[in-house]
């Protein structure tokens, strides 16, 4: 029973073929394609308005050089939100519960921000490793600590997204199992537990959106340090 709770995080197979590729590609099919007409329907208008608001808010602290990342970060935000939301549906698979996928997003994008900083302003990029006014005896220790903290950033990005989504899915499954077990024996307690399950599901919807936003926001902050 304990192991079956983690079966939902295994990549599903069909005739020996992993279906994670379909789960990753499916979100892009669900979005309507903007037309060239002046008047669009309400869905496309709301979609464009939300993406524009998010992009403006994300690019606000960045200078002009960082605005080149607007399309990439906005697309990543929409992609992660859609995958996380679809993963809350019954009998679905959430690719972002896989640490390998999240690290595949985090490491290249973090490395790109570091390389941009080293190319455009190497002095300022290396200056982050040593705070100003550091006593001479502490310089080697602080350089080591700051270097370790720099390389931990992509790991923190991937683990944060994986851990929050995995914990939420496990908690939903545990409470749902408790509802089915308690329903024949104690219906009143089962109804109260089902109410808690409904509230938890609403919380997980918020977590799915917030974690996608935090992932992209932290990438924009790393970019801000290097442009």
From TrEMBL:
It comes from the Eukaryota. It catalyses: H(+)(in) = H(+)(out). GO terms for cellular component: mitochondrial inner membrane; proton-transporting ATP synthase complex. Keywords: ATP synthesis, CF(0), Hydrogen ion transport, Ion transport, Membrane, Mitochondrion, Mitochondrion inner membrane, Transmembrane, Transmembrane helix, Transport. It is found in: Mitochondrion inner membrane. The keyword Cell inner membrane does not apply. One of its GO terms (molecular function) is proton-transporting ATP synthase activity, rotational mechanism. The chain crosses the membrane at residues 12-31, 69-89, 101-118, 138-159, 171-199, 205-223. It is a multi-pass membrane protein. PROSITE patterns: ATPASE_A. Its main location: mitochondrion. Component of the ATP synthase complex composed at least of ATP5F1A/subunit alpha, ATP5F1B/subunit beta, ATP5MC1/subunit c (homooctomer), MT-ATP6/subunit a, MT-ATP8/subunit 8, ATP5ME/subunit e, ATP5MF/subunit f, ATP5MG/subunit g, ATP5MK/subunit k, ATP5MJ/subunit j, ATP5F1C/subunit gamma, ATP5F1D/subunit delta, ATP5F1E/subunit epsilon, ATP5PF/subunit F6, ATP5PB/subunit b, ATP5PD/subunit d, ATP5PO/subunit OSCP. Belongs to the ATPase A chain family. This is ATP synthase subunit a. It comes from Cobitis macrostigma.
């Amino acid at each position: 029973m304990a192991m079956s709770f983690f079966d939902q995080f295994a990549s599903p197979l069909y005739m020996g073929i992993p279906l994670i590729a379909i789960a990753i590609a499916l979100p892009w099919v669900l979005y309507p394609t903007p037309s060239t007409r002046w008047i669009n329907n309400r869905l496309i208008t709301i979609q464009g308005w939300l993406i524009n608001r998010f992009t403006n808010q994300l690019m606000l602290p960045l200078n002009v050089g960082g605005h080149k990342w607007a399309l990439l970060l906005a697309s990543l935000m929409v992609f992660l939100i859609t995958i996380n939301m679809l993963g809350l549906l019954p009998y679905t698979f959430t690719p972002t519960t896989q640490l390998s996928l999240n690290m595949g997003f985090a490491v290249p994008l973090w490395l790109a921000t570091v390389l941009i900083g080293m190319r455009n302003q190497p002095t300022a990029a290396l200056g982050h490793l040593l705070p100003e006014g550091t006593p001479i005896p502490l310089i080697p220790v602080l350089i080591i600590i700051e270097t370790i903290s720099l390389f931990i950033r992509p790991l923190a990005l991937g683990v944060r997204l994986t851990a929050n989504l995995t914990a939420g899915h496990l908690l939903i499954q545990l409470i749902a199992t408790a509802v089915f077990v308690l329903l024949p024996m104690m219906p009143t307690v089962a109804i109260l537990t089902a109410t808690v399950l409904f509230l938890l599901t609403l919380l997980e919807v918020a977590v799915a959106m917030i974690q996608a936003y935090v992932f992209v926001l932290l990438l924009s902050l790393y970019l801000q340090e290097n442009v």
